[in-house]
Amino acid sequence: MTDSQPAGSPAPSPVTLEVWCELQCPDCHSALDDVRALRAAYGERLDIVLRHFPLEKHKHAFAAAQAAEEAVAQGQGWPYAEAVLARTAELTGRGEALLLDVARELSLDVEEFEVALIDGRHILIVDADQAEGKAIGVTGTPTYVIGGERLDGGKSQEGLRERITEIADRLLAHPA
Fold it and tell me: What pLDDT is attached to residue 13?
């Protein structure tokens, strides 16, 4: 999921950070501080792309991923994902009702969210992300991929922002 490059914008940034995430995951909520700090430090030089990796242990994760894609379709992907991640515990208890409340709070078209969750229009995107994640060895969330290197944040976030910064700086200094 990315809505950072609107139509007609300049070419994508030279460095992409993929964040394999699950919107019901407390560790992904904790990782938001790192993502925000990286976004602030690099601005448009670092394209941060959220990739969906819903885990079976979280009952509402797959629906949350689909809802996030509907938010992308409505131009509010990152704000929606961040708002849901801020309420992971509430998502566990409330499920789809929370997903619709977040859409309402962001002034998105809630009826389209309801229809999208029923008709499954975004399932292929979520399934493709999950399949690609499995293919590259993602087993938990958050997992980061930058410059072809996979960094597992599900065990610990300790030192990951620094490692991502090292790789981003190297890639920006010597673009491919």
Answer: 52
DSSP assignment, residue 86? T
Handedness of CA 116, 120, 123, 125 (dihedral sign): negative
Residue recorded with tokens 């991640």: 85
Return the DSSP state at 104. Answer: H
Q: Tell me the β-bridge partners of 15.
A: 46
For residue 95, count CB atoms less than 10 angstroms from its CB and return exposed for 0-12, middle for 13-18, buried for 19 or more: middle
Handedness of CA 164, 160, 32, 49 (dihedral sign): positive
Say whether pLDDT at 98 is over 80: yes
Nearest residue to 142 (alpha-carbon basis) of 45, 17, 40, 47: 17
User: Tens digit of pLDDT for each residue in 38-90?
Assistant: 999 999 999 999 999 999 899 999 999 999 999 999 999 999 999 999 999 99
Residues written for the chain: 176
Please list, in sequence order, all residues whose beta carbon lies within 8 angstroms of the beta carbon of residue 87, skipping any fewer than 6 positions away: 98, 102
Taking residues 17-22, what's their average pLDDT?
95
Residues facing 47 on adjacent strands = 16
